[in-house]
Amino acid sequence: MTPQHTTPVLKDLNIDNITANTIAINSQGSDARMQYLMERLVTHMHDFARETRLSTKEWMAALNFLVQVGQISSDVRHEFILLSDILGLSLLVDAIDHPKPPGATEGSLLGPFHTHEAESITDGESMSSDPKGEPCIVIGSVKDAQGNPISGVKVDIWETDSTGHYDVQYNERDGPDGRCYMHSDDNGTFWFKAIVPVPYPIPHDGPVGQLLKLLNRHPWRPSHMHFMLEKEGWDHLITAVYLRGDPYETSDAVFGVKESLIVEFTPADQSTAKQYNVAVGTKVLRQDFILVSKEEADALKDKNALEAMASLGRRMKLVDHLPVPDLD
């Protein structure tokens, strides 16, 4: 038996009625959130086409560009993440989905080069085998907003080598390097050896690089080290730390830098050198990560969502902390 649907009459469509009819036919499913996402996506896309008087030639160029983004992507190079990054969308989505109260460590970008093949290391081990990098140690702690240590937090860390390349960018690599994961101890602390981060260009030999060139933008990222912290009951934190004074500190190609995430490496004095068994003068980074409970993050996310919807004049309710039209 052929399913019966109540659908609009899809003929004689034009500039003025195509949007409403597209939304109507997309609104037959049972997932309210999906319907809302599609309604807003179609609305904004159609408005964009009308406002810019988008030409067929331009639209085909955009479609071909997206095809090229997909074609160059691989298991170790996610060009769509790169595209999202350079458009500022990655940072925006993270800020919406993981809001931070004052004092909590702010989020930053995951980037296209995170992998799940990092090996576990213990305190004092090195995450880098690059002999040309400038040695450093990172002494970290994980706490809640009240300063209480949080133990058992998985801390995922990754950075480039001294030439500004991630391990996955080498075809001849035989395993992970410049990346690791650890767990905070009973005092909420962890420490490891690494190399001082260096600035590097994002991959610009593909369609995203071509777009940057058309926009007269550079592809460079300031020196940084990535961190991802997770533990049940705590809001997932993806962040990074950025070296103060880097030449690209204020012009990051992917908009990741925040003032609270800018750090300075200091030379190890005799006491620090002895405690951590490194040479005097070795660069040291001390970094506290302040996590937010999942409950607190969800409450803040709900508050922000309802306030944003109210400011747009929309009557909404929340389902799984995400807004959908309130039709009751």
TrEMBL record:
It comes from the Eukaryota. It holds the Pfam family Dioxygenase_C. Its cofactor is Fe(3+). One of its GO terms (biological process) is catechol-containing compound metabolic process. CDD domains: 1_2-HQD. Keywords: Dioxygenase, Iron, Metal-binding, Oxidoreductase. InterPro entries: 1_2-HQD/HQD, Catechol_dOase_N, Intradiol_dOase_C, Intradiol_dOase_core, Intradiol_RC_Dioxygenase. Residues 138-166 form the Intradiol ring-cleavage dioxygenases domain. One of its GO terms (molecular function) is catechol 1,2-dioxygenase activity. PANTHER family: DIOXYGENASE, PUTATIVE (AFU_ORTHOLOGUE AFUA_2G02910)-RELATED (PTHR33711), INTRADIOL RING-CLEAVAGE DIOXYGENASES DOMAIN-CONTAINING PROTEIN-RELATED (PTHR33711:SF7). Belongs to the intradiol ring-cleavage dioxygenase family. This is Putative Catechol dioxygenase.
